[in-house]
Structure formats: structure tokens, C-alpha cells
Amino acid sequence: MMSGNALRDLNTLPTSEWKNDSSSKGNFMKPCNGNTIENVEEQQKKSPASVHINGGETVNAEAEVANSEVEYIESENLSDLEDVDTCLEKLLPGLNSKDWVLVVEALNSVRRLSIFHKEVMHTMLGDVIPLVVKSLKNPRSAVCKTAIMTSADIFSAYNDDLIDSLDPLLVQLLLKSSQDKRFVCEAAERALEAMTTSVSPMSLLPKLQPYLKNRNPRIRAKASMCFCRSVPRLGVEGIKEYGIDKLIQVAASQLSDQLPESREAARTLLLELQTVYLKSHDLTTTVSEHPEMGSWENFCQSKLSPLSAQAVLRVTNIAREGLVIGS
Which intervals carry biased composition (Polar residues) (predicted)? Predict the structure, then answer.
């Protein structure tokens, strides 16, 4: 279940991010588009005090230009800390500072600790994560993006140890990956990918499932993509344990979603589930001889409404026919 804070964060999503995206067309990974630092700098020439983004959000142009000077260091290029004890002592005050430069420095310290000294910071996670979430909400792009990169490193380091603190991180990353500021959006998508590869799917899927029904189509799309990436990591036995009937119902519900990313994720997931079903029932060679033994078609019709079953079978049959023709 989502925490109360996570629900409130979703409910306070700016109206500008609720636009109908039914006209958008694209692939499974839709590139984000919108205002970047360069756009802000152009607008600053017209209005040096502040500029409006997405028809409603006002940002300080001078602050955004300053943000463009921040160096974003990839995880593999981060160096170890010279003095771990001093860093730990300054960590929480730095994360809670009103000076955004100190906050960025502290976030990068969290990243270094996660990579090089994760055991040392483990006991502090309960205090660190709420402050990282606070930085994710920061309107200053430099702080927000650094916090996103920090989230990715935390996922990679602590895996399932984060599961009890995951909700506030997850909701913010879904929100950031759904906005129009391209470089923030892309960083959030990478953090979500790190989450799906680091947190065990058995723990992560129940956390993602509520967001598949979110009223914001962009949130649903990003959650669908994460869900689709996580399911194959269960493996055949894990999918059977989780419940292939539950998973097919989730995928079927996304087939008619508003955005193409959700629909493509659903199609990918259905093909995975069909493959697992056939393997687990050893039906690849026996269906033609004994169709009454529980074919994929019968399974879909027994678990879904007639319309949903028809849609699922259309997707999986077309894909199978394509594979046969191409082989």
C-alpha cells in the first residue's frame, strides 16, 4: 500500500502535467521533451527576474542558469571519500541545509558512502532517505537532479533494505520522470531502471501496482514500464508463485491505456507471460493434440472478461504468427 505522504504527493501534481497525451505516439521508451536550461536562458533575456514554464510553474531564471554550471558526476566516476568520519558528521546537517550548494555536496557524499562505505551509512538510512526525498521535491534543478542520481546509487547499494522506505522515493521518481524538463526526466528514468534491477521483484511489484491505476496517464505509463521490467526477473517459478493469473489481469488492464508506453509495456509483459505459461504447462508440443488440456486461449478466457481475453489473444497470437513467419 502507498503511504499517506506518497498519495498526497500524487494529488498535488501540477495541473500542467495532467494534459491529455492521447495524441502522443512513440516507442516503449518515449523521450521526454520540454524546457531545459537552455530554454530558460533564452527566456531570461526577455524577463530577467523569472520565467514561466509549462504554463504555470515559475522559476527564477538566474537560479536555473546557476544550476547549469553544476557538474553531474556519473556513479562510475565518483572518487572515494578522504575522511569518512568527518563526512558522516556533516552529512545530515548538509542535507538539511538552506544553502543549496551544501545540499548538493551532501547528496554527493551520500552517493560516495553508498558506493564505497555502504555498511557505515546503513544505520543512518532512516534519517538520510527523508532528506533525499526533500531534495527530490526541491524546485532547483541542480538539487533535484543530484537527488535523483543519489536515489539510483542508494538503490544499487541497499537493494531490498530500502523496501520499507521505498514509497516516498518511488512517487517522487515517477513524478520527475513524467515532467517536461528533459534532463531531470531522463535522470529519473535511469533511477527507476536502477530500482527495477536492484530491488527484488517480489517486493517491488506490490509497491508498483497501485500506480498502474493512477489518474495521471504519465504516472501510469512510467509505472507500467517499471512493472514490465520487473516481472521477467521473477523467473518462471517466481511468476508462478506470484500468480500468473494476477499478472495477466494487470497486463490486460494496461492494453487499453491512454498512452502508447503503457500499451507497449502491456504487450511485452503478455508475451513474457505467454512464454512462461507454455513452458510451465509443457504445451508447446501438446496443444495441437489435446487442446482441452488448458491452452493459453482457454486460460485467458477463464481469467479475463470476454473483451479483455479477446484483446490479449489478439496481441499474443499476432506476435506468435510473426515469430513463425520470421523463423
Answer: 12-26
